[in-house]
Amino acid sequence: MKPGKSKNGGFPRTIDTVYLRITNRCNCRCLTCVNGGSEDGDPGNELTYREIAVVLDELGGLGLKHFTLWGGEPLLRKESPRVFKHAKKVGLSTTICTNGILLERLADDLVGCVDHFVVSLDAVGPLHDRLRNRKGTFDGAVSAIRAVTDRGASFVKIWTHLNRRNIGEVDRLISLADGLGIVVEFFPTHAETPDMERVVLTDGQKRKVFSRILSKKQSGAPVANSDHFLNHLIKGTTFRCSYPKTAIEINDNGDLYSCERPMGSMCRVWGNIRDHRVSELVTPERLAPFIEDMKDCNYCSIPCIFDTSWEFNHRIRG
């Protein structure tokens, strides 16, 4: 299916999700991340709450359904709870991706306006702190998970990069999720820096560990990964990426793009939402050649991108 025009003018009707990187600042220095700026760094040109609210109003009017806030660490922005409340006001479902360090103190403000909590945990205990380069990160994240679940959060998920440093943590993370009454989702680290290249899983390691995860899931473990995604990693198959047909991303400075790392290269920015409406930047005519380039990308192995593409492709075929 081509990204045809919606009833709201030229905006592609197949796009229903927006990811907003509200800040590039972070309070961790993770082995598996290239995004984080200094926790105390200058926020510089970050979008203001009012600018974000204006964009959310437009996106709600365009018929989008899903809104994810991430970073950096999104909770370094004190406006985050207000952003979520505004997203709910315009009819969007809401998700936060967080390391959990600041989550416990904001639990009362966030539960009720955040539908999905995604908390990064790469190991159980001190190894997680070493991977995140910050002491107390594991204990803080687990306390935060308990805080939001105790307050009635409807969906909480542990999100885990798997690499050579933490490949032995799978069973412990599954047991942790089970004990907390939540789910865990795994995906392989992919090489974006020399440090990451040294720890990425070999093909054999990938097949072995994701085969074990699939087996654990089939035995009733609280694994959130889809069978399609796990089999994709186990068998080393390719897939047709349809992510640009279903989602847009907005950077902390207002730049709008369709994918952060297309074909492993730098993102192609369509323009800035401070200068243009979203519907002016994202059109079927602009997206068509990019979608064609991206169809065989297969650069990343991120569950949400794979599953969104798989569901979209099979829905169209059906």
Describe this structure in words.
This protein has a single domain (17-317), classed as Aldolase class I (TIM Barrel, Alpha-Beta Barrel), CATH 3.20.20.70. Strands 6-5-4-3-2-1-7-8-9 form a nine-stranded mixed beta sheet. It has helices at residues 49-62, 80-89, 107-110, 126-132, 137-150, 170-180, 194-197, 203-218, 227-235, 243-246, 278-281, 284-294, 303-317, and strands at residues 17-21, 66-70, 93-98, 116-120, 156-162, 183-188, 247-250, 255-257, 269-272. The protein is globular, with a radius of gyration of 19 Å. The chain is built from 13 helices and nine strands. The chain has 318 residues and is an alpha/beta fold. The longest helix is centred in the middle third of the chain and has 16 residues, at 203-218.
What form results from the Cα inertia axes?
Answer: globular
What is the CATH C-level name?
Answer: Alpha Beta
Number of strands: 9
CATH superfamily: Aldolase class I
How are the secondary structure elements laid out?
Layout lengths: L16 E5 L27 H14 L3 E5 L9 H10 L3 E6 L8 H4 L5 E5 L5 H7 L4 H14 L5 E7 L7 H11 L2 E6 L5 H4 L5 H16 L8 H9 L7 H4 E4 L4 E3 L11 E4 L5 H4 L2 H11 L8 H15 L1
Parallel strand pairs: 1-2, 1-7, 2-3, 3-4, 4-5, 5-6
Antiparallel strand pairs: 7-8, 8-9
